[in-house]
């Protein structure tokens, strides 16, 4: 706890003046201050240019041959045109003499690929002399720049659109900025997932962590093991994700520069798997006989590993991301302990009575399977806690002194993702976006190299009490608070009081874009949410 | 009514160094879904007998009609609209089946629901009131079901109950069991408070909420229409109030036509609209469009430029109130107006030399509660002259203001609400309870249980005193609520309050309630309402309105 509090968020006024090298000129909230998350370097002037929908265009720098125009960007132009000029239709499009063009150039023409952990999201945006240019190393960086550009445009009281002369150089503080959705405790229709991806792009999130399956249901339709969803989903037809649903989510995410990280959590949290795959789960015993209930995956049977290898091979081919989340959290040992075959196996392996060794044995085998598939494994911190040797990425989720845990993981030389402070499914008695803002992921004692192992953070929206009816207002705009922490410079964004009006403004922008983001406090937006 | 909420935001900003509390979300004993013998009925009727005989309904042959003997015929628009609404709920309005009455009907057992208004005056064109008869009797049998009610208000509730008895069998056929129900509410006042000042709620959001209220047999929409942050009510007498006091003078106001629409929409569903114009505190927004109404606060010997509560020492204040409440009494047909009167801060009054002088003249000493009483007293006389009854928040009673005997006291302060109920009823006043039902406070888990387990008459008092409790209200204050999160935050949590206020006192089985409420929530979802889930679970038809 002490480490956590070493950066005092209260001292914001001081910090504000120390960082004068970053010139942020306060004009009014319609301009660059309202970009959320705050870009790294912003130079803003009061000179402004008018934008007209009928004479605005997106363009590629000439050396990008139009024959090879970028599909990701073409789709983004279409999206952002309607975001810039809401309600305007193309029919009235006429070329005027003075066209305001936002010209895009990419260092690498990589439009057909997928974003990954190492993708550069850096961009430079320059609005100058009635023109704008956006330079990025990759197409993913240019998407971030487009988002920033769209937030810079504002409407005056007469409805005209303006943008100020601006120079922005921007890149994320952390490369991994995720949102976890849980589609097992409640099924989320694909439309709800897509809508979340839209909103994620507005806050520059770049990983959708899909906690696909868990105890209550198995909605992923596997083509190798169709019984998993046939028997394990809430409903075998209406409450599943077909292969084409999954492809749709992945491609929709790609178009927005978002990775899709699938999680197949085992050996615990697997009740629903057992319905469609017999002998996968451990039969629990009461007295000397099976009790009819089942525990975690049975780690003693070779058939278990054949099944897992086969399922993960499918998963690895369906999900293009080089990472797979293997879960590994909250394994309850009581069922294993009750089962005489498991105990015999423990004895044979020389594990004694230490069931965490059995768990480690299982996880190690699963991690090996994924590395054969050339995928990097991510696991919940529980795995690290009992088994420090395995090579993998650790996601820290437990409450308490989470930075102590982060420190232990990076000291072991492993990379880490932080989720503990961002459990947004807990509404709490209070309405505390600031709690998600005042988080300092690097405020622990460690070397620069160790700190660089903290690759990012993740907002978790577990599904016990969440489904499509309340997902959006529960998530937004509170997740946006975490987004700024993960994207922006910590020292420029340490002050809640300064962030508050900006976040309010951003929340109104989300409403204008059709995202059902709840209010932060008393107040209003020019365009309120209408569709109820 | 919401003093506690004001500073939560600041607390959070400071308290953020502390980590989250314990992460364990499953602390309540697990409620397991086991089908209830009462199916999905919510709130549970007073007397229900459901037999095993099931009857089929076909959308092409089933109809809801007026009984021949009925006191309300085809001319009763209220009922005709309700028939259509419930026909669509039962058969799924979205499916757009072609209804062809001449075509041969498939196998069907229930052909008709006859609605029979038994009293000669159906009250079809009237407004519901606190003394309206809401009782009904429903008999479902082959081939005709009969719904008998003395007034249209009971018939509306009976239609809702009928629609809740219909379920889909595994082949998708609409089915209903042969049933006998006789039903009436335990409490006459069953309300929801919405706050349209802290955030503006578009009319559509209010109408949607009225729709859901009817599905839960709520019958009072308490419209906390204005407060400190904004004044969205467009007054014909004083248009400046909203012109200057609303968030926006055109997009964030309720025009007279809007208000009319809300009142009529509510009436058609048997719901009263009780408007609240809270004074003398909670009035910052009034001051923008009405000069000299609020008390100028002083710092030292000079006005500080800020304003406090309504200025109680000027005649102009009472002239204004007289005209204003004359308009309100004409615009809102309900017999009651809620006059607020809560949370008056005395600091500003204390700072003002004119007020001090007035206190002296009146012989109030330093007791500003006497000044408050002086104001309220005059206000009550003004409102009484319009022939309206009034409801006031409990502080007015606590401060010893002389009240007309038919005043309704609204108890809201969370701590000590039981002894407050004792005191208020001992003094002979009718009362409404809200203290345990502040639904804008949220927490993880199944907090509906807390609302459900409340027993409103659980205070020390005689039978006579208990009769003075006419009901309760669930309050949804608007600090953190607007159209984006109103519905999922309110429903189905408010449904728990609905059953407490409608059903018999003995209906307290939480297991049975859980299973009925789960189904009721899925029914709301199927009707297009984003009512949030109670536990990990699913509905056959999930919410599609994303």
From TrEMBL, chain A:
Catalytic activity: a ganglioside GM2 (d18:1(4E)) + H2O = a ganglioside GM3 (d18:1(4E)) + N-acetyl-beta-D-galactosamine; Hydrolysis of terminal non-reducing N-acetyl-D-hexosamine residues in N-acetyl-beta-D-hexosaminides; a ganglioside GM2 + H2O = a ganglioside GM3 + N-acetyl-beta-D-galactosamine; N-acetyl-beta-D-6-sulfogalactosaminyl-(1->4)-alpha-L-iduronyl-(1->3)-N-acetyl-D-6-sulfogalactosamine + H2O = alpha-L-iduronyl-(1->3)-N-acetyl-D-6-sulfogalactosamine + N-acetyl-D-6-sulfogalactosamine
Domain (Glycoside hydrolase family 20 catalytic) ranges: 174-489
UniProt keyword list: Disulfide bond, Glycoprotein, Glycosidase, Hydrolase, Lipid metabolism, Lysosome, Signal, Zymogen
Annotated EC: 3.2.1.52
Any one of the GO BP annotations: carbohydrate metabolic process
Entry GO MF terms: beta-N-acetylhexosaminidase activity
Quaternary structure and interacting proteins, as annotated: There are 3 beta-hexosaminidase isozymes: isozyme A (hexosaminidase A) is a heterodimer composed of one subunit alpha and one subunit beta (chain A and B); isozyme B (hexosaminidase B) is a homodimer of two beta subunits (two chains A and B); isozyme S (hexosaminidase S) is a homodimer of two alpha subunits. The composition of the dimer (isozyme A versus isozyme S) has a significant effect on the substrate specificity of the alpha subunit active site.
Assigned protein family: Belongs to the glycosyl hydrolase 20 family.
Name of protein: Beta-hexosaminidase
TrEMBL record, chain B:
Cell compartment(s), UniProt: Cytoplasmic vesicle, Secretory vesicle, Cortical granule; Lysosome
Reaction catalysed by this enzyme: Hydrolysis of terminal non-reducing N-acetyl-D-hexosamine residues in N-acetyl-beta-D-hexosaminides; N-acetyl-beta-D-6-sulfogalactosaminyl-(1->4)-alpha-L-iduronyl-(1->3)-N-acetyl-D-6-sulfogalactosamine + H2O = alpha-L-iduronyl-(1->3)-N-acetyl-D-6-sulfogalactosamine + N-acetyl-D-6-sulfogalactosamine; a ganglioside GM2 + H2O = a ganglioside GM3 + N-acetyl-beta-D-galactosamine; N-acetyl-beta-D-galactosaminyl-(1->4)-beta-D-3-sulfogalactosyl-(1->4)-beta-D-glucosyl-(1<->1')-ceramide + H2O = a beta-D-3-sulfogalactosyl-(1->4)-beta-D-glucosyl-(1<->1')-ceramide + N-acetyl-beta-D-galactosamine
Domain Beta-hexosaminidase eukaryotic type N-terminal: 41-165
Signal sequence extent: 1-19
Keyword Lipid metabolism appears in the UniProt entry: yes
Principal subcellular localization: cytoplasm
Protein's GO biological process: angiogenesis; carbohydrate metabolic process; ganglioside catabolic process; glycosaminoglycan metabolic process
Pfam family, one: Glycohydro_20b2
GO cellular component term, pick one: membrane
Domain Glycoside hydrolase family 20 catalytic, residue spans: 187-504
Active-site residues per Swiss-Prot or TrEMBL entry: 343 (proton donor)
Keywords: Cytoplasmic vesicle, Disulfide bond, Glycoprotein, Glycosidase, Hydrolase, Lipid metabolism, Lysosome, Signal
Enzyme class, first EC level, given as a word: hydrolase
EC number: 3.2.1.52
GO MF annotations, alphabetized: beta-N-acetylhexosaminidase activity
InterPro entries with a match to the protein in the record: Beta_hexosaminidase_sua/sub, GH, Glyco_hydro_20_cat, Hex-like_dom2, HEX_eukaryotic_N
Cystine residue pairs: 76-124, 297-348, 522-539
Family statement: Belongs to the glycosyl hydrolase 20 family.
Subunit-level organization: There are 3 forms of beta-hexosaminidase: hexosaminidase A is a heterodimer composed of one subunit alpha and one subunit beta (chain A and B); hexosaminidase B is a homodimer of two beta subunits (two chains A and B); hexosaminidase S is a homodimer of two alpha subunits. The composition of the dimer (isozyme A versus isozyme S) has a significant effect on the substrate specificity of the alpha subunit active site.
Known function: Hydrolyzes the non-reducing end N-acetyl-D-hexosamine and/or sulfated N-acetyl-D-hexosamine of glycoconjugates, such as the oligosaccharide moieties from proteins and neutral glycolipids, or from certain mucopolysaccharides. The isozyme B does not hydrolyze each of these substrates, however hydrolyzes efficiently neutral oligosaccharide. Only the isozyme A is responsible for the degradation of GM2 gangliosides in the presence of GM2A. During fertilization is responsible, at least in part, for the zona block to polyspermy.
Name of protein: Beta-hexosaminidase
Organism whose genome encodes this protein: Poecilia reticulata
């Amino acid at each position: 706890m002490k480490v956590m509090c070493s950066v005092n968020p209260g001292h914001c006024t001081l910090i504000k003046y120390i960082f004068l090298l970053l010139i942020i000129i306060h004009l009014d909230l319609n301009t660059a201050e309202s970009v959320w998350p705050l870009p790294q370097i912003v130079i803003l002037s009061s000179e402004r240019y008018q934008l007209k929908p009928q004479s605005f265009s997106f363009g590629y720098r000439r050396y990008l041959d139009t024959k090879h125009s970028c599909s990701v960007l073409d789709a983004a132009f279409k999206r952002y045109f309607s975001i810039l000029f809401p309600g305007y239709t193309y029919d009235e499009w006429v070329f005027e003499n003075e066209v305001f063009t936002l010209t895009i150039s990419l260092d690498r023409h990589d439009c057909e690929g997928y974003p990954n952990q190492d993708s550069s999201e850096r961009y430079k945006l320059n609005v100058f002399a009635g023109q704008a240019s956006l330079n990025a190393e990759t197409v993913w960086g240019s998407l971030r720049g487009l988002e920033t550009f769209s937030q810079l445009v504002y409407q005056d009281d007469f409805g005209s659109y303006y943008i100020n002369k601006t120079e922005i150089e921007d890149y994320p503080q952390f490369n991994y900025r995720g949102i976890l959705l849980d589609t097992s405790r409640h099924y989320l229709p694909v439309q709800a997932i897509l809508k979340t991806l839209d909103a994620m792009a507005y806050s520059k999130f770049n990983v959708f962590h899909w906690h696909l399956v868990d105890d209550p249901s198995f909605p992923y339709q596997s083509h190798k093991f169709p019984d998993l969803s046939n028997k394990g989903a809430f409903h075998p037809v209406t409450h599943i994700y077909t292969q084409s649903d999954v492809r749709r989510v992945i491609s929709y995410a790609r178009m927005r520069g978002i990775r899709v990280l699938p999680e197949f959590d085992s050996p615990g949290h697997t009740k629903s798997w057992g319905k469609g795959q017999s002998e996968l789960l451990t039969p629990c015993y009461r007295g000397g006989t099976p009790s009819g209930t089942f525990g975690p995956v049975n780690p003693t049977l070779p058939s278990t590993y054949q099944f897992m290898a086969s399922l993960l091979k499918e998963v690895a081919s369906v999900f293009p991301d080089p990472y797979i989340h293997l879960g590994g959290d909250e394994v309850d040992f009581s069922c294993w302990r009750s089962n005489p075959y498991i105990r015999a196996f423990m004895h044979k392996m020389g594990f004694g009575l230490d069931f965490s060794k059995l768990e480690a044995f299982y996880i190690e085998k699963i991690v090996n399977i994924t590395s054969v598939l050339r995928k990097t494994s991510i696991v919940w911190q529980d795995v690290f806690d009992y088994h420090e040797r395995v090579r993998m990425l650790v996601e820290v989720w437990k409450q308490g002194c989470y930075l102590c845990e982060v420190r232990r993981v990076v000291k072991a030389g492993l990379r880490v993702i932080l989720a503990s402070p961002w459990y947004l499914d807990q509404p709490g008695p209070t309405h505390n976006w600031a709690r998600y803002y005042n988080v300092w992921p690097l405020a622990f004692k460690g070397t620069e190299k160790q700190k660089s192992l903290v690759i990012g953070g993740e907002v978790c929206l577990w599904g016990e009490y969440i489904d499509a009816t309340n997902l959006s207002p529960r998530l937004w705009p509170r997740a946006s608070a975490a987004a700024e922490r993960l994207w922006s410079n910590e020292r420029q964004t340490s002050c809640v009081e300064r962030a508050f009006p900006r976040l309010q403004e951003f929340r109104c922008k989300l409403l204008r874009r059709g995202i059902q983001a709840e209010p932060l406090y008393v107040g209003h937006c020019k365009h309120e949410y209408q569709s109820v | 009514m919401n003093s506690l909420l004001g500073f939560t935001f600041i607390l959070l900003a400071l308290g953020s160094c502390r980590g989250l509390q314990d992460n364990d979300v499953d602390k309540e004993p697990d409620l397991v879904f086991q089908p209830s013998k009462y199916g999905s009925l919510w709130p549970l009727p007073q007397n229900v007998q459901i037999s095993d005989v099931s009857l089929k309904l076909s959308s092409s042959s089933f109809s809801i009609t007026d009984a021949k003997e009925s006191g309300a015929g085809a001319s009763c628009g209220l009922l005709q609209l309700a028939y259509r609404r419930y026909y669509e709920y039962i058969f799924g309005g979205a499916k757009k089946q072609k209804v062809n009455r001449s075509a041969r009907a498939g196998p069907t057992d229930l052909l008709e629901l006859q609605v029979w208004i038994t009293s000669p005056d159906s009250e079809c064109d009237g407004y519901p009131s606190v003394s309206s008869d809401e009782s009904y009797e429903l008999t479902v049998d082959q081939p005709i079901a009969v719904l008998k009610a003395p007034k249209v208000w009971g018939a509306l509730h009976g239609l809702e109950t009928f629609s809740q008895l219909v379920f889909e069998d595994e082949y998708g056929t609409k089915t209903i069991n042969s049933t006998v129900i006789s039903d009436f509410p335990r409490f006459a006042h069953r309300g929801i408070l919405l706050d349209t000042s802290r955030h503006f709620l578009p009319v559509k959001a209010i109408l949607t909420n009225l729709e859901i209220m009817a599905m839960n047999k709520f019958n009072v929409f308490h419209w906390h229409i204005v407060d400190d942050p904004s004044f969205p009510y467009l007054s014909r007498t004083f248009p400046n109030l909203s012109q200057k006091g609303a968030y926006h003078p055109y997009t964030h106001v309720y025009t007279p036509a809007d208000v009319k629409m809300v009142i009529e929409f509510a009436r058609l569903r048997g719901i009263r609209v009780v408007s609240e114009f809270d004074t003398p505190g909670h009035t910052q927004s009034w001051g923008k469009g009405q000069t000299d109404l609020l008390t100028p606060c002083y710092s030292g010997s000079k006005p500080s430029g800020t304003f406090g509560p309504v200025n109680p020492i000027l005649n102009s204040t009472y002239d204004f109130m007289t005209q204003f409440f004359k308009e309100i009494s004409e615009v809102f047909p309900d017999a009651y107006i809620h006059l607020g009167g809560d949370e008056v801060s005395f600091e500003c009054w204390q700072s003002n030399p004119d007020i001090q002088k007035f206190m002296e003249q009146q012989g109030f000493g330093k007791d500003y509660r006497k000044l408050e009483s002086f104001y309220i007293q005059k206000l009550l006389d003004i409102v009484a002259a319009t022939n309206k009854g009034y409801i006031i928040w409990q502080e007015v009673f606590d401060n010893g203001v002389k009240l007309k005997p038919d005043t309704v006291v609204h108890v809201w302060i969370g701590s000590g609400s039981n002894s407050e109920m004792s005191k208020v009823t001992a003094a002979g006043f009718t009362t409404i309870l809200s203290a345990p039902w502040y639904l804008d406070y949220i927490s993880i888990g199944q907090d509906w249980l807390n609302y459900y387990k409340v027993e409103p008459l659980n205070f020390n008092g005689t039978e006579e005193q208990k009769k003075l409790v006419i009901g309760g209200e669930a309050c949804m204050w608007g600090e953190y609520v607007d159209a984006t999160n109103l519905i999922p935050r309110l429903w189905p949590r408010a449904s728990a309050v609905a059953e407490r206020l409608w059903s018999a006192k003995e209906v307290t089985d939480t297991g049975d309630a859980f299973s009925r409420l789960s189904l009721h929530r899925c029914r709301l979802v199927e009707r297009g309402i984003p009512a949030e889930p109670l536990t990990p679970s699913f509905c056959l038809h999930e919410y599609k309105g994303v």
